[in-house]
């Protein structure tokens, strides 16, 4: 793998290698290959695998930082990756061997964390703080705000335990409003059985345009995740559509959702608190509209493609300036858009 990557880099001579996720697609060999060829590499941190073999910083349905700043081998006995000691050991070996090799410390020129919270966890896990830049997710296209909301709420995400689906359906016992559940995953059949005879529709996987339409058709988005999350795209879609978000007061969600301004935060894993916050917002249409307007303003100020282009080019240019290019000079990126 490493030699093939080096050959590709020699052939194409890129100014920079940008990696969104090396797991399965390639391996950490991509960083060694770039480093050996004098090409800077930038890694976007879309999960916590570098500091947690399970990648979620979660165990037994609650946040877990047992391995943060410690040996990843501690996760093997707990079977943190896919419930398998063997598979967890393979991930732990990857993390620890690359630590020893210096991959994380010297072969990656810059990291992109999606929130300040996420950055803090990677620093605690030993990633050099000076190399971690914060740049949020963004939307390539603006779906456009809808002034008048519809009815009820929508959940969009993978139908799996870490997304808090069980607590969400429990909460809806006390919410007299329709709920749309959008997504696929191992809990889909369970969710459909739990929703029978209730004002809950499990819609399955939808096309991107239909996801946006489902958000525009309701009053608010619910995000009951019980893991830290990194930066779910659906938050931006809700903001862009002018919809407030009711989310867990946990990790990056508590940073992105401004309590009382762009939505409401509830105690993670507490269905009663979730239900109370949803009912409060549904009963106050003027507050829905106010928070929706704030959410839209937040999107326009921070999460558009234009705003993120400038941030991304700045990070790339810094990485290039700190690394020798093939011609021994920095390369200027960007230009007309």
Features:
six-stranded parallel β-sheet, alpha/beta, 2 domains, 13 helices, single chain, disordered C terminus, 337 residues, Rossmann fold
Quick recap:
The chain is an alpha/beta fold. It is 40% helix and 13% strand.
Outline the structure in words:
With 337 residues, the protein is α/β, with parallel strands linked by helices. The chain has two domains: 154 residues, no CATH class; 150 residues, Rossmann fold. Helix content is 40%, strand content 13%. The chain contains 13 helices and twelve strands. A six-stranded parallel β-sheet has the order 9-8-7-10-11-12, sandwiched between helices. The chain has a four-stranded parallel β-sheet with strand order 1-2-5-6, with helices on both faces. Strands 3-4 form a two-stranded antiparallel sheet. The protein starts with a helix and ends in a 16-residue tail after the last helix. The C terminus is likely disordered.
């Amino acid at each position: 793998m490493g030699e093939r990557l080096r050959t590709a880099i020699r052939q194409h001579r890129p100014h920079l290698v940008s990696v969104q996720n090396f797991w399965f697609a390639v391996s950490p060999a991509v960083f060694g290959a770039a480093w050996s060829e004098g090409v800077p590499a930038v890694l976007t941190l879309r999960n916590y695998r570098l500091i947690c073999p399970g990648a979620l910083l979660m165990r037994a349905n609650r946040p877990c930082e047992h391995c943060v700043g410690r040996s990843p081998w501690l996760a093997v006995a707990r079977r943190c990756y896919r419930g398998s000691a063997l598979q967890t050991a393979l991930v732990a070996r990857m993390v620890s061997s690359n630590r020893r090799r210096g991959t994380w410390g010297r072969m990656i020129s810059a990291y992109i964390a999606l929130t300040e919270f996420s950055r803090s966890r990677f620093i605690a896990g030993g990633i050099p703080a000076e190399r971690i830049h914060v740049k949020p997710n963004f939307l390539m296209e603006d779906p456009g705000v809808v002034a008048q909301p519809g009815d009820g709420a929508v959940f969009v995400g993978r139908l799996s335990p870490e997304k808090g689906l069980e607590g969400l359906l429990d909460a809806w016992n006390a919410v007299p409003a329709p709920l749309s559940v959008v997504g696929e995953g191992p809990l889909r059949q369970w969710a459909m059985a739990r929703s029978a005879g209730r004002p809950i529709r499990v819609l399955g996987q939808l096309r991107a345009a239909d996801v946006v339409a489902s958000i525009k058709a309701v009053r608010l988005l619910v995000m009951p995740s019980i893991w830290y999350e990194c930066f779910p795209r659906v938050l931006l879609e809700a903001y862009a559509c002018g919809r407030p978000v009711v989310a867990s007061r946990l990790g990056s969600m508590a940073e992105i959702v401004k309590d009382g301004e762009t939505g409401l935060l509830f105690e993670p894993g507490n269905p009663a608190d979730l239900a109370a916050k949803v009912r409060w917002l549904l009963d106050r249409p003027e507050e829905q509209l106010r928070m929706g307007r704030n959410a839209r303003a937040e999107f326009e100020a921070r999460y558009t493609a234009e705003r993120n282009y400038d941030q991304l080019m700045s990070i790339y240019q810094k990485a290039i300036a700190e690394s020798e290019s093939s011609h021994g000079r920095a390369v200027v990126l960007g230009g007309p858009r």
